[in-house]
Automatic annotation (TrEMBL):
The lineage of its organism: Bacteria, Bacillati, Actinomycetota, Actinomycetes, Kitasatosporales. It comes from Streptomyces hoynatensis. This is Acyl-CoA synthase. Residues 66-151 form the SCP2 domain. It holds the Pfam family SCP2.
């Protein structure tokens, strides 16, 4: 059976749950925007996004959150656009897929490639914001401090 993501070295066959955050960061660093677009299609995209958001719970730094209470809405634009919400409260982080009726404190909107680069430590959130690749709605101060709340790998 041919690789559904030609040129991506069999990434479609990887078990993303078994890849460490550092290994994932190194994989993302090697990919071009075009390769990420090829990767982020269909079932593979669903698997990758689900694993990334599941890891947010594990990579959360409660000691950095203090008494923070916030709903962060992530709008990842692609085919199709998906929404995940991260709730930080009482020193814990929970994640759910889909848009709730609750009002988020901040909404982050970005395309697949920028999202992967951001969560893998391969992209600067400030640069993405300044070049309009990352759109922030709501509490910009909270958005600017999100990276300190998670253990983000360095590629």
């Amino acid at each position: 059976m041919p690789d559904p993501t030609p040129g991506l070295g069999g990434l479609a066959d990887l078990d993303f749950a078994s890849i460490t955050p550092a290994e994932f960061a190194a994989l993302v660093k090697k990919l071009s925007g075009k390769e990420i677009a090829e990767l982020m299609r269909g079932d593979l995209r669903t698997r990758v996004l689900a694993e990334i958001f599941a890891r947010m719970v594990r990579q959360f730094r409660p000691e950095s959150a203090g008494s923070l209470r916030a709903l962060i809405r992530w709008e990842v634009l692609g085919d199709p656009a998906v929404v995940y919400e991260t709730t930080i409260a009482d020193g814990a982080c929970t994640v759910r897929e889909g848009r709730s009726d609750a009002e988020p404190r901040v909404t982050l909107t970005l395309r697949d490639a920028e999202f992967l680069r951001l969560v893998s430590g391969n992209g600067s959130p400030v640069t993405m914001f300044m070049t309009r690749k990352l759109k922030v709605g709501g509490d910009i101060g909270l958005a600017s401090g999100l990276t300190r709340l998670f253990d983000i790998p360095k590629a």
